[in-house]
User: Fold these one by one.
Assistant:
Number 1:
Amino acid sequence: MPNERPDGTAGTTRPHQDHGIRWRLVRGEQSALAELYDGHASVVRGLAHRFLDDEDAADRVVAEVFAEVWATPGAYEPERGSLRSWLTELTRRRALRHLDESSLGPRARARLEERIRAASAAARADHMVTAMPGSLRTVLELAYVGRRDYREAAAELGVSEDETRRRLRLGLQLLSAAAQNGSEKAS
């Protein structure tokens, strides 16, 4: 089950939870698959729908992704990233496979592949932010979502302006490093 963030949106599982679910899946515990599905099916379906823009195809991708998880739970390597990241990658691959199997023309396929790349990048960015320590995530959300400058964010958080700037800088550095690592893995 995903963690609840202070704003009520779903977060990501913690690494020890990812390890626990993986081992339960490897042991064949159906309850682990149900827990994983309950916590992540909406993300997988949302990505599949954004990739394919087709309800039925998105539903097939969701079924295929979770069937693959059940069939090959050992394929998930926690040291390489979170379960959510792995599910995102499985979804991307399945969506691309659906595109390859479809009868789209080259231009339509190129447009859809570009949408898939953009949606994957957006999902990766969302995951990077949700995986950050709360103090960094909160200041980034205040600055970029809440449109507050560092002084306003500092006042709202009850910390010094220097601390707010430090958190912003560190958060942005983490995002930059994670984005760079993600683009290197994708190529």
Note: DSSP finds eight helices and no strands in the chain.
Number 2:
Amino acid sequence: MSMELDRLAIASVGAVVAVVIWLGWSALNWVWLRPRRLERRLREQGLSGTSYKLLFGDVKDSSDMTERAKSSPIPFSQDILPRVVPFLLNSVDTYDLDHLKDWMHGIYD
């Protein structure tokens, strides 16, 4: 009887360890490996950008730029994009994203 309980306990512990390893690998793949693979493939295709930052990405940079934009007075021109989406405009200018400039042509220039 106790031998059966020992086998059952070993099998249960083995199953729990397998599930924990699988969940850990899935989380690692979701949080780190897949984004890095995607970043590498995009760079191979010629698309540059900021490098991957774990979990939060460019949220801090974006919020800092938005706060800076909101702290300055609004100009009299109708160009509101620098105030509304400063991070997007900075990315377009920094990485020379011509396709986005073409897409935003009516409001960007």
Note: The chain has two domains: 1-49, 59-108.
